[in-house]
Specification:
2 domains, 160 residues, 36% helix, elongated, 5 helices, Alpha-Beta Plaits, Arc Repressor Mutant, subunit A, four-stranded antiparallel β-sheet
Length: 160
């Protein structure tokens, strides 16, 4: 899908919405020097184009009892279309997997897994992931602490 043409005002809107998702349209319009109606039309255009794909609250996992995060590298035994489709269908059904990326290199996928504790991770790994047909190898790394987690895309360099 082709990316829509974004001007400086679009990028400013996106940057503000990334940082302040609950900002009112009136405040957003004022901050980017647009009328409220023009601002709303631009935001709606960005939503319809799929540039703005949704809005969400950011939740601290530890404060809701999800104290263990792991990155799990997965290698599939087969790489045909059916095996990949089956794996991605399973991954999409598992709530513990909050992100899954297809990779280049010696492992095929990188999963970001968020669970309550080591016992829950063990059950996820043994009962789900290793039980999934087509998984040849896994390698897990646990998050000790998060040094940086950007929640916004680096849009500033695009305006230039």
């Amino acid at each position: 899908m082709d990316a829509p043409s974004l001007d400086r005002t679009d990028l400013a809107l996106l940057a503000l919405l990334q940082r302040e998702g609950r900002i009112s349209n009136a405040e957003l319009a004022e901050r980017v020097s647009l009328s409220a109606s023009a601002c709303l039309r631009r935001v709606q255009r960005l939503e319809q184009a799929g540039v703005l794909s949704g809005y969400a609250a950011l939740i601290d996992p530890a404060r809701v009892g999800l104290g263990l995060q792991a990155f799990v590298r997965v290698q599939l035994a087969r790489h045909d279309a059916a095996a990949i489709a089956e794996f991605t269908e399973r991954i999409n059904a598992w709530d513990e997997v909050v992100a899954c990326h297809a990779l280049t290199g010696d492992m095929d996928y990188l999963l970001h897994v968020v669970v309550q504790d080591l016992a829950h991770f063990s059950r996820f790994l043994l009962d789900r992931l290793l039980n999934a047909s087509g998984v040849a190898d896994v390698n897990s790394s646990f998050v000790l602490r998060t040094v940086k987690q950007a929640r916004a895309l680096p849009l500033a360099h695009l305006a230039g």
